[in-house]
Amino acid sequence: MWTWFYRLASPPYVYGVAATLTPWLLAGAVVALGYGEGVGLFFAPADYQQGDAFRIIYVHVPAGWISMFCYSTMAIAGAIALIWRIKIGHAVAAAAAPIGASFTLLALVTGSLWGRPMWGTYWVWDPRLTSELILLFLYIGVMSLRSAFEDPARGDRAAALLGLVGGVNIPIIHYSVVWWNSLHQGATVAKFGKPTMALSMLVPLLACFLGFMLFFGAVLCMRLRGEVLNRERQAKWVREAIKT
Amino acid sequence: MTPRRKRLYVVLGILGGVAASVALAVMASRENIMFYYDPSQVAMGKAPVAKRFRVGGMVVKGSVTRAPGALQVRFVLTDFAHQVPVEYTGVLPDLFREGQGIIAHGTLNSRGAFVADEVLAKHDEKYMPPEVAASLKNKSAVKPAGLAPAQARPGVI
Amino acid sequence: MGGYARFVWPSFAVALIIFAWNLWSAGNLHAAAKVRVARAVAMALKERT
After folding, report:
1. Which CATH number characterizes residue A53's domain?
2. A242 has pLDDT over 80
3. Which of the four pLDDT bands, split at 50, 70 and 90, describes residue B96?
């Protein structure tokens, strides 16, 4: 029963699976993003209050979601690697960090570009905005900690620990708009009950979510292959693998 | 003590340090983390005196008056329990309108009016096409925009 | 296109840059790792002869 789990921990197997998955994930991302972003930009109706500027939602909200989802992936992979000494976990965590950092940056920049016309400011020290900025610093911290050690194994462990500790920030980001009076509006989709969005706007948004997830999966697989090769440089299977 | 053990303690030490500093930062910022105060909190004297703070509420319908030929605006903010008069000189955000949730940054003056130097518009988490909003309004089912969550929980931590 | 020009297009442009960077960077990481392994293999072969 556990064989699939052990196989997942084997670098050559992961290297091969990631190679097989990548084109499918990329193709799915192209379709979902093409539909979602296209409809969101050109066919969804303008918002009753915000007009056309609300269309920034089609990049901002999925980017924010990926920034948190990617962090959870990284923290959990790091925890698995720490607890069960499964080295592939560190490779997944190392592959996830730069992707997450880039999507956090995207969420911050697009949020800023949305805030200017709607709120009247590019930036305020609001709980939601501040905790998302801390998320970016956490990603940068995890990446630099990993490379700060001469011994890569120690760097991996230190990065995994910081990733785990920083995990407290994830619920803080999500609930910041509930716990504190905030300029940022509350959740529209990720909450109990009906999403407070017209269906003609919601369907492309969900497609964008899917597209961002698939793209994240594809890029994670691509990076994971690079990480595995770098880490398994001495292994015999690697020499076989790069011949093809 | 084996070197391995030593390393474990070093890591645990770092971990403890990080946890302690996070806890301290949270404690320290607990007072300031509140992004804005409700008019009720201002009325009850919970807002800081002689210090800049933010007040958030809904612009009362029909309360906006503009000084002719100047950028000065006066309006009244409400959280449906208490009201705060606001004076502001400057350019208002696009979303500023009567019945809209806004947040003003400034100080209370001696007459109990809030003198703002920055006004931010808050929008809610509802998104819909204008036709839908209009038909909802006709059925008078639409709630005033913005600040609904804060209004539901007056005086949150 | 009134509301589009000032903030919507820049947002989508930034998104495009982030997406492109991710693809480029991931491809680059894998390619560089491959080159490194190939070099190590070549070195090992040279030592043997």
Report:
1. 1.20.120
2. no
3. confident
Q: Model confidence over B133-154: pLDDT tens digits? A: 777 777 654 444 444 443 333 3
Q: Is residue A2 included in any domain, yes or no? A: no
Distance, in angstroms, between C49 CA and closest chain A CA? 18
> Which chain A positions have a beta carbon within 8 Å of C23's beta carbon?
219, 222
Q: What is the pLDDT of residues A149-163, one digit of tens each?
A: 788 898 999 999 999
Q: How many domains does chain A have?
A: 1
Considering only CB atoms, which chain A residues are within 8 Å of B94? 117-118, 120
User: What is this structure's pTM?
Assistant: 0.83
ipTM: 0.91
Give the chains touching A; criterion: ≥3 Cβ pairs < 8 Å. B, C
* DSSP state string for B79-141: -SS-EEEEEEESPPPTT--TT-EEEEEEEE-TTS-EEEEEEEE---S-B--HHHHHHHHHTT-
∠ CA A185-A189-A190 to the nearest 5 degrees?
90
